[in-house]
Amino acid sequence: MVPPGFVRAVSYGVYDGSMRAVIHALKFERMEPLVHQLGGMLAEVMSRFAQETPEGMLVIPVPLHAKRRAERGFNQAEALAAEALLRLKKIHPAWRLEMDSGALVRERRTESQAGLTPRQRRQNLRGAFFVPDPGPIARRHILLVDDIYTTGATGRACSKVLLKAGAASVRVATLARAQRRFPVFVETRQRYMRVAESLEIPGNGFGNIFVH
To answer: How many CB atoms lie within 10 A of CB 32?
Structure first.
């Protein structure tokens, strides 16, 4: 198997139950107040890279195609990343993070990845991303942020383009992973259960950080 390009990818929880429902509520129903709670979860995951890259990182949310962004009204990855950075300034004030939403562009509108095989996902994303200006990318450690990690095809495609543009390394942080693998540590569930309860969502899907 070809190496993924990124150094490591971490997720807060499993993409099922409450986690799936809350992400869908944000993504498709635009329940934007959820960004505050979900951004907090993402901040906890992102903080795992603080010791690996003490000099700081450039945070890049996975971009949407311009037409899809216009249809949806916002990019959930960008909204989550912005909230997470606000939290991280308090958690790790010395860790220098900056976000650049324009550093990576999705130039081709791709089909939905849902229902595609891993091979079809890779083909679907081939040539979808590009870096308009390599300058801000060169020699930087990149933290790529998205809502869901499924097969890693998006992370691979973005990493390939970013590394070709001169990035020193790429790491990936997401809220959820589609398959439960390699549990690293269990987080207290109580405060995040309130998010599910507010939406009348069955309480499962929160609480584990996974590394892959």
So the answer is: 13
